[in-house]
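Hi everyone,

Forwarding the result from last night's run.
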Amino acid sequence: MGFFGQIWSDAVFLRGALRSLRMTTHIARNPTRVFPDVVEELATRFGEAPALLSEREHFSYRQLFERSNRYSRWALQHGVAKGEAVCLLMPNRPEFLAIWIGVTRVGGITALLNTNLVGPSLAHCIEVARPKHIIVAAELASHLIGTLPLLKCKPTIWVHGESTQHWPRIDHQIEQHDGRALEVHERRALTIEDRALYIYTSGTTGLPKAANVNHYRVMLASYGFAGVMGTRASDRMYNCLPMYHTVGGLCATGSLLVQGGSVVLRERFSAREFWDDIARNECTLVQYIGELCRYLLNNPPHPNEHNHKLRLACGNGLRPDIWETFRDRFRIPLILEFYAATEGNVMMFNFEGKTGAIGRLPWFMESRFPVAVVKFDVEKEQPIRGPDGFCIKCDPDEAGEAIGKIVNDPNRPSGRFEGYARSEDGEKKILRDVFEKGDAWFRTGDLMRKDRNGYFYFVDRIGDTFRWKGENVSTTEVAEAINAFPGITDTTVYGVHVPGREGRAGMAAIVCEGECVLSDLHAHLQRRLPDYARPLFLRIRKSIDVTATFKQKKINLVAQGFDPGQIDDPLFFNDPQTHAFLPLDAALYERIQSGTMRV
């Protein structure tokens, strides 16, 4: 990058950073002002202006405030104490936001459950939160029914909508409550340090962890992204990302609401209807994940793909190989890629639209946001330490683990690591004595590289977790589900690359005692795992190679992938069309490689 190019980049970055700074400095200065208070202010300021729009319901700012107050009074009536959890299992809709705002207004913690989870995974997430109540949308009642026998806790279950279950209907209950602002005696003292949400995230191993999201982080996500995107009252955000995640549930919603804009919610992404939705709702902003962009590119030209008012697409995971094609084909003026961790302290933005970069930390910001990339031993899955016992920073463009320094300064809450509902999960994410004795750094679990100009580029996930269909997949969780099937004695799960697809597809090598009935195994996995976590490829082996310490060896398995030309073991493909495991021969392999077989 030349001298003038550097000056331009620094100027663009500085403008974006200052916008975000102006929007967030007030948060720590007003520690008793939390997001539900902001919703009350917005109702007064914007009244009947549209806030949340969907096919199910439309809420103005006043309606959102009043609806959330009904849930606050429901929580008070049913004994939700400050710090107690309420689990929420509901698809994207305005009601989703009203519920958690109402519960958190009176000090409750809302655990946002992944709507794809079933069986043991869902049971684990509920148990971690230790909820007093569970609110479930009627259409997801079946997910919960199969999970109830696995629960040790005994929460009260409320259903939203008409259901065949004999659970009380919360949508009827809240109609008995007043929607006006809470009286003084109904309010509970809250600060930005109090917990508001549990948002589930996958670590490098094991089941999902419930990340602590306090009111400060809710405010930071809302106001910070309002500054990053420069949102205004005339903006409309198109959000088809799940609201149980931070990006879809906080960044894409709060950033518009705090400025008086509108959020168009869709229950789930549809490549076929995406551009019709964007055009019909006159959206000016869209929140994406990389897989969404690839799906759109793989679709044939759409009549409305140029008939839009988008000024910016904001998201993460847009890979360099499709970045410019996506931008140019759909005529998107600016792509704003970012990187952040729900519970961590590493956050960066690519304000300049630099192709492929997940963000940038120029020299003049390094001291305020200390992030480092350290040399990493892939086999040991640990940073490499030098003779002095400290970690070693990577050279420019060298891949290593990205880490962020934990700063426990009351004036800089964003520098902390908030941890998880279970405290023992948090210590695994902290790296100690990194560059000096006594320091502590948050481990992102991601391999990155940083160039000489301060741009960061994503390389891969560390450990066994990989991403598929925009979700993190824990190989430990998948292996446990497979091993629960009768006759399977050992399993190792790993991710393999599929041409033309983001992330890595799941592949399982299994050892069977006798004959393995694949149709029964397929049905078993449908019951135990969400769609994105079910292995796409299956390899039947006589044994699983292990190290001297009984750690499974996956390096050779990953390298061989699902190529029948390199593998003598029986191979199978989990066909999404026939919903069955098909023998994977050379002809089918070629169809998958060429993209003619849908994966």
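The mean pLDDT is 92.

Cheers,
N.
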